[in-house]
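thread from #wetlab-drylab

HS: before we spend reagent money on co-crystallization trials with uracil, can we at least see a predicted complex? here's what I'd submit
DV: go for it
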Amino acid sequence: LNKKAKLIRLDQWLAKAAGLTRSAAKKVIQQQRVKQLHQDGKLTALMDPKFKIATDATIIFDDKSISIQASRYLLLYKPAGYICSTQDEVYPSALKLVDSIQDKSQLHFAGRLDVDTTGLVLISDDGQWTHRVTSPRKNCTKTYRVSCAQIILSEQIKCLEQGVKLKGDEKTTLPSVVEVLNPKQINLTINEGRYHQVKRMLAAVGNHVEKLHRQQISQLSLAGLNEGEWRHLTAEEVALFD
Ligand code: URA
């Protein structure tokens, strides 16, 4: 069992690898059409849908070898003019930028950036992982460089840090961290990812966001990437969100 492999039920495994429904997978298991190929070349019959099997196992189904594709985890430096949606709309999908990746059908964004926002976005086909990245309960920080239209007053900073009530929301935002870069620019670190959160936070204190750039999610940064470039995460980086 390698580090990234997990144990899952055989019927779930087969459904995923062969594109079957769970009940169709159960049926073919009961029909004794499924075997496991072990590393020493031995074959064993698998007849229990509940049997736990490693995600990186090799299964023989009707004499054909099948496997589950390993999940993919990507970090993209999104330029302005692309949307964090899997489909093109008025603007093209940022998935257009992840070239040389095969079968993008299961890929999705772990938290969205607006079309005019630049910076770090995470993309994966592992839905449980992207959920953990975006869930406010996981306390995963996001740091934005915020360029404002007006000078940012110390009163405004205090409000941002303590939490503000956004228009249309009941709950105030969780406490945030503000670092002043210059009179009209701050780094803002938040734990949530509400709709247009940063722009609405600045609006709530009477300012206006002119430019927004996400520098960091948790310990991940854009170091080494130019706008429009992407890379795979390492196993250690993926495990930051376990
Ligand atoms: N907050 C926003 O308002 N926009 C973004 O793109 C990200 C956070």
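DV: The first helix runs from residue 10 to 18.
HS: ok that's useful, forwarding to the group
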